[in-house]
Design goal:
The complex is a heterodimer of chains A (105) and B (638).
Chain A (H helix, E strand, L loop, with lengths): L6 H21 L3 H26 L5 H31 L13
Chain B lengths: L7 H17 L5 H27 L11 E10 L5 E8 L1 H24 L6 H19 L4 H19 L6 H32 L4 H5 L4 H4 L5 E2 L2 E2 H16 L8 H4 L5 H10 L4 H8 L1 H7 L1 H22 L5 H21 L9 H31 L15 H14 L6 H14 L3 H26 L15 H16 L5 H4 L13 H23 L4 H8 L1 H8 L4 H47 L7 H23 L1
Antiparallel strand pairs in B: 1-2, 3-4
Helix pairs in contact in B: 1-2, 1-4, 2-3, 2-4, 3-4, 3-11, 3-16, 3-20, 4-5, 5-6, 6-9, 9-12, 9-14, 11-15, 11-16, 12-15, 13-14, 14-15, 14-19, 15-16, 15-18, 15-19, 16-17, 16-18, 16-20, 17-19, 17-20, 18-19, 18-22, 19-22, 23-24
Classes of the chains: A mainly alpha (105), B mainly alpha (638).
């Protein structure tokens, strides 16, 4: 009944996006780039939600709702994160995450 | 039938007074708190006299005085059978003790109004006196042995508080601690005795325990240990508590030191009431002693007789007047214990029991009088030592007269009360054990000697140089002296053999002249010997002391009992038991704890570098963990 693109393709795409996001999160030093990596992770999750919804329960829409939620929350999170980054910049005059390390022993 | 429900107020009023004075006393004026305490005492004294009147003279014919449970509540209920009650038990001895305690306590309260005037902590003193009165009354009206034990400890605490009343003085603090620890140690025996006894008889209740035909007395003697029945052991252990509280040998060492407390306290606690608690305990358990533990009763007699002789000898050499009186107290209590020990149950057989209670009553009067008199003397000359006194009879006429009455009473000179009670004791001994009788007979002479040694040294002899002219005490102090002197002089005419007997039935007794005449003679001999030695200034006492150098020195140093105790505790127990335990505690127990702390500290010092502040390091660790868990759950869990 479901013809067209197989599920595996979506999952592979989501996995690639997810690990790209993780990789970016761990290796980038710029806070803005880290934030972008997080968005990438969230979007990979969205793709998973939609793909599974479509392939497992085609007549229900909970998966879509969840992706909508994730988008809304991601928007809010981005706003908060950028506010924090601005404050960090004002305080330390840098957004390099390695230089922001006063919270230690 | 009369109901005695109101007697619970005899307990509650002093307790309330203690709470009021203890919590709010410092806000009141000192005089007001003193008067409050004294008036509370006046109320319960009146109540006690009413109770005694209603109890002893019920107005209807009766065969014997019954034990009445006037008030009872279950305080702790463990199981159906095991419960601890609190209540009021009235029987001849408890009613008699109510009279003794409230009378002496009331007199001491009045006396303290004058004696303690201007002292710091005046209201604290009265609060503690109320606490003591409450606990002592609770002790004597206890319905069961556990209630008695609770109040027994309470009197110990109030005694501790009052001995240490002058807490700025190190010697008072030391004496208070000594009294508490020594009596507490003896109370350990009491507790063991209670547990043994109640385990075998299945009851705490006095009425059930002391019923001569009851199950408690007939059973329990079956099991034996080291040749003595378990009842005997438990009664000996219980008696150990009495020995501690009544300052019998070998637990007497706290009593002389307890004289560090204010003199009214010595009169109330360490002469008239608390120290006779041991006698009261034996009297309370008397049927058990007679019927199921006669060997324990022998112990009572011998300990009592030995203590009375021992203390009388020491009393002859002491110079601190309060200490002489303390040893005299110990000696007289030994008399009472001895009288119980030689007594049987019922009728004329129970003469010793009656004599003991009689002597307890008269002793409370004359010994309280002696102590209060000593207080008046100390108040006048500001010294405790009879070597610094002499010729005081001109300055202190009332004190002199009352003191003389007390001395004659304790020496057993008729018609004062001591004659009657001491005569009954000697008569009881005469029919029981000739050896112990002769010991007690000698003690009667020694008693007369040391009391008049005290009397002549204080009131006769040459005058000393005093800081200021000694003056008679104020009325608040002399009135109790006069009242107690009247009590000491005339209470011998109370027909105790009709009122306070071992089985509650009256019996007939009369003075046995074969005992009475020699006892009066030896009393007079003691007095004349004292007059010969101390009536005028002579060198005879010093020469006697140097002739019997060793005896004198041993007696003067109280036979080195304190030193023996110190040796045993310090050199043996502390060194070979306490010190190793302390070492174990410090090095093994504390060491383990410290080692744990050190390891934790060292490890955390090494690993704290992990908290670097680098956000991405944390994230790396976190994600590695997640991946690890994922692998674990996917491939290894199954």
């Amino acid at each position: 009944m479901n013809t067209g693109i197989p599920l595996q393709y979506f999952l592979i795409l989501a996995a690639i996006m997810f690990f790209t996001g993780i990789y970016g999160f761990l290796t980038r030093r710029n806070l803005i780039t880290i934030l972008m990596s997080v968005e990438l992770i969230l979007n990979s999750v969205n793709i998973n939600f939609l793909a599974f919804n479509r392939y497992l329960y085609p007549h229900k829409i909970e998966g879509m709702f969840f992706s909508l939620f994730v988008i809304a929350v991601a928007a809010a999170e981005a706003a908060v994160a950028i506010a924090i980054i601005i404050n960090i910049y004002r305080r330390f005059t840098t957004i390099n995450v390695e230089d922001v390390n006063v919270m230690k022993f | 039938m009369i109901t005695f429900n109101y007697t619970i107020w005899i307990l509650l009023i002093p307790f309330l007074m203690f709470i009021v004075l203890g919590l709010a006393g410092h806000r009141l004026k000192p005089a007001l708190s003193g008067i409050l305490g004294t008036s509370g005492l006046a109320v319960i004294t009146a109540l006690s006299y009413i109770t005694a009147w209603l109890y002893f003279f019920p107005g209807e014919s009766h065969e014997a005085y019954q034990k009445i449970t006037a008030f009872n509540i279950t305080w702790l209920q463990f199981t159906e059978n095991l419960h601890i009650d609190l209540g009021v038990l009235l029987d001849p001895i408890s009613v008699m003790m109510l009279i003794v305690i409230t009378t002496v306590s009331f007199m001491v309260h009045i006396y303290s109004l004058g004696y303690m005037k201007g002292e710091r902590g005046f209201e604290r003193f009265f609060a503690f006196l109320s606490l003591f009165t409450f606990s002592m009354l609770g002790l004597v009206v206890a319905t069961n042995i556990f209630q008695m034990y609770i109040f027994w400890e309470l009197v110990g605490v109030s005694s501790y508080l009052l001995i240490g009343f002058y807490y700025e003085r190190p010697s008072a603090v030391r004496a208070a601690k000594k009294a508490f620890i020594v009596t507490r140690f003896a109370d350990l025996g009491f507790l063991i005795g209670i547990l043994l006894l109640s385990f075998h008889t299945r009851t705490f209740d006095f009425i059930a325990l002391t019923d001569p035909n009851g199950p408690a007395i007939t059973q329990g003697s079956g099991v034996s240990f080291l040749g003595l029945s378990v009842m005997t052991w438990s009664m000996i252990f219980i008696y150990m508590g009495g020995v501690g509280k009544s300052a019998m040998f070998p637990f007497h060492i706290w009593l002389p030191d307890a004289m560090e407390g204010p003199t009214p306290v010595s009169a109330l606690i360490h002469a008239a009431t608390m120290v006779v608690a041991g006698v009261y305990l034996v009297a309370r358990m008397f049927p058990v002693y007679v019927f199921s533990a006669p060997a324990a009763l022998e112990v009572v007699a011998w300990v009592g007789a030995f203590s009375s002789l021992f203390a009388a000898v020491i009393a002859c050499t002491q110079t601190d007047i309060k200490r002489v009186l303390a040893y005299s107290t110990m000696s007289q209590i030994g008399y009472m214990m001895f009288a119980l020990g030689v007594s049987g149950y019922g009728g004329l057989e129970g003469l010793g029991f009656m004599a003991s209670m009689f002597h307890l009553f008269t002793h409370a009067m004359f010994k309280a009088l002696l102590f209060l008199g000593a207080g008046a003397i100390i108040h006048a000359v500001h010294s405790n030592f009879m070597t610094e006194m002499g010729g005081l009879r001109k300055y202190l006429p009332i004190t002199h007269l009352t003191f003389l009455i007390a001395c004659l009473t304790i020496s057993g000179i008729p018609p004062f009360s001591g004659f009657f009670s001491k005569d009954e004791i000697l008569a009881a001994a005469f029919h029981h054990n000739m050896f112990l009788f002769s010991v007690e007979y000698a003690v009667a002479g020694i008693t007369a000697f040391y009391m008049f040694r005290l009397y002549f040294n204080i009131f006769w002899g040459e005058e000393r140089h005093y800081h200021h002219t000694p003056h008679e005490a104020p009325y608040t102090m002399t009135i109790p002296l006069i009242v107690l002197a009247a009590g000491a002089a005339f209470s011998g005419f109370i027909p105790f053999h009709k009122l306070v007997t071992s089985d509650g039935r009256a019996f007939e007794t009369e003075i046995e002249w074969i005992v009475a005449i020699p006892s009066v003679l030896i009393g007079l001999a003691g007095i004349s010997f004292a007059w010969f030695l101390y009536g005028k200034k002579t060198t005879i006492p010093d020469r006697l002391a140097s002739t019997f150098k060793y005896t004198y020195r041993y007696a003067y140093n109280k036979f080195y009992i304190d030193e023996i105790y110190l040796f045993v505790t310090k050199k043996i127990i502390f060194r070979y038991v306490a010190a190793p335990i302390a070492w174990f505690d410090r090095h093994i127990v504390d060491g383990t704890m410290n080692a744990i702390a050190w390891v934790t500290q060292g490890v955390s010092f090494r690993i704290r570098g992990f908290q670097s502040g680098q956000l991405q390091k944390y994230a790396f660790v976190f994600i590695s963990g997640v991946i690890l868990l994922a692998i674990l759950f996917i491939y290894l869990w199954r």
